[in-house]
Amino acid sequence: MEFRYLTPTYAVSPQILPEDVPALKAAGFVAVICNRPDAEIPDAICADNMRAVVEAAGMTFIENPLIPGAFTPDNIATQGRVQAETEGPVLAYCASGNRSSIAWAFSQAGKLPTDELIARPAKWGYDLEPFRARLSDLAQR
């Protein structure tokens, strides 16, 4: 499993599986954000099942489902709150890691320059350039 670090304490990844959880714990993650809606995935890896496995390993699990193209202010606030309040590394996952990267960038708008919010995910192949205007708008709030 590859952890795609956007900051020293925030990484994204594609969908995790129950058997990946020991590697997450060994890598030092203390919290896991599920950005994938249950409607997209089989029951075996739905949020409730992943929560049980992650929490049994001693990590915090946060369910923050992101619907492509329809992120809410609450989604963005949750992503930012978890990053700000968690003492230790956070892993956010979705289908590919892209939505988790976008949510990170939106939640950090105004804290980091827009160019940096686009460049960090780009190192992992995530194209946030189409979100430049929204990132700039969020930075002004």
From TrEMBL:
InterPro entries: BLH_phosphatase-like, Prot-tyrosine_phosphatase-like. It comes from the Bacteria. The keyword Transferase applies. GO terms for molecular function: transferase activity. Residues 2-110 form the Beta-lactamase hydrolase-like protein phosphatase-like domain. Keywords: Transferase. CDD domains: PTP-bact. This is TIGR01244 family sulfur transferase. It comes from Albidovulum marisflavi. The lineage of its organism: Bacteria, Pseudomonadati, Pseudomonadota, Alphaproteobacteria, Rhodobacterales.
